[in-house]
Amino acid sequence: MMELKDTIKQMAAQLKEVDAILLNAVNLSSPVVPKSCYVTWQKRSQYHQYLAEVLNLLQVRENACEAMYRLSKEASDVTASSGHEFHYCDSPVSFSSARFLTLQNYVTTAWVVYDKLANVCARIIGPASIGNDDSSKRNAKLDSAFFPDKKADKKSISSEQGVDLPTAKDETHLDRPNGFALQTLLACQWSWPVKVSYKIRNLVVHEGMRWTDGCFFRGDSPGDGFKMSDRLKSYLDNACGKQVNGGERRRECLSRMANEDGFPWYGDDVRIILKKCHSEIDILFSTLLQWCIPAFCSQVMLFSEPDKISLAPWMENNG
């Protein structure tokens, strides 16, 4: 499996080639295939630009991760009573504040990457209601579009008159990329790493490391490092595991992760937990991109055959 960075480069290049071909096809004087088809395809092929933007964010994410490890190294060299002064963006802060800010920077940057990639994939392989609508309200998010909470399907929506109406199950799924049993396949392979990272992201962004059920970290002194609290472990297990018979929770992930030494808590170190989860989510997107973009390019090639437009550059590079 290619690394995510290499996958993005390759898939962006494929889309760019097809986009250039479609740009000429849109201007055909008397096409056999309706021009609306070419317009529809070109809306999707233009996402090669979007993918190229994500490449720079991968390095930003790596830099944010390194900042967490530098802080941890700094903290390991001092004691709570030493009077050591920590800094964030050249400003003096307590260790707990520096820890919070570096973690927040890392996990939010990671989710900017993932939601951008989810948006590209959903717009390319999803229904027309997503792909043909340029408004931000149609931007798909990884957790809600590809790993939806089943409880959300049971919620009510309000009509213009303010009356709560039950949401039909079929309607709630119209705007999700559901084809080829995609959500089922993703959930059974990557649900655990996606949901653990997403829950940590929400706690960091919305709750400020503390919430009604307890504290995020084991303590606030430098010696506590990035160790998570037992309360947080219990919360993540209940929130991210799939309930099975007997009330037990099953952590849905690939066997290579489940059989790894230290799984699932890796010594209670939040840094390692997130790196492991993000490594798996990177593979998820490398897999998803390598499926949906060639599938899209093949669709263009086959459905535009009556006009004999040349996809030779893409065919030469991709068999």
What would your notes on this structure say?
This protein is mainly α and 319 residues long. Helix content is 59%, strand content 6%. The strands form four sheets. It has a two-stranded antiparallel ribbon with strand order 1-2. A two-stranded antiparallel sheet has the order 3-4. The longest helix is centred in the last third of the chain and has 34 residues, at 270-303. It is elongated and about 80 Å long.
Sequence-ordered SSE layout with sheet pairings:
Layout: H1 4-25, H2 35-45, H3 48-76, E1 86-88, E2 91-93, H4 95-125, H5 128-131, H6 142-146, E3 156-158, E4 164-166, H7 169-172, H8 182-207, E5 210-211, E6 214-215, H9 230-240, E7 242-243, E8 249-250, H10 255-258, H11 270-303, H12 312-318
Antiparallel strand pairs: 1-2, 3-4, 5-6, 7-8
Helix pairs in contact: 1-2, 1-3, 1-11, 3-4, 4-8, 4-11, 8-11
Summarize the structure.
With 319 residues, the protein is mainly alpha-helical. The protein has helices at 4-25, 35-45, 48-76, 95-125, 128-131, 142-146, 169-172, 182-207, 230-240, 255-258, 270-303, 312-318, and strands at 86-88, 91-93, 156-158, 164-166, 210-211, 214-215, 242-243, 249-250.
- The number of distinct β-strands equals 8
Main sheet record:
2 strands, antiparallel
Shape: elongated
**C-alpha Rg, in Å?**
23 Å
The tally of helices reads 12
Strand content: 5-15%
Protein structure class:
mainly alpha
**N- and C-termini, Cα separation:** 18 Å
How many domains is the backbone divided into? Answer: 1
- Low-confidence segments, ≥5 residues, pLDDT <50? 152-174
What is the averaged pLDDT score? 84
Percent range of helical residues = 55-70%
- Strand line-up of the largest beta sheet: 1-2
Question: SSE order, as H and E?
Answer: HHHEEHHHEEHHEEHEEHHH
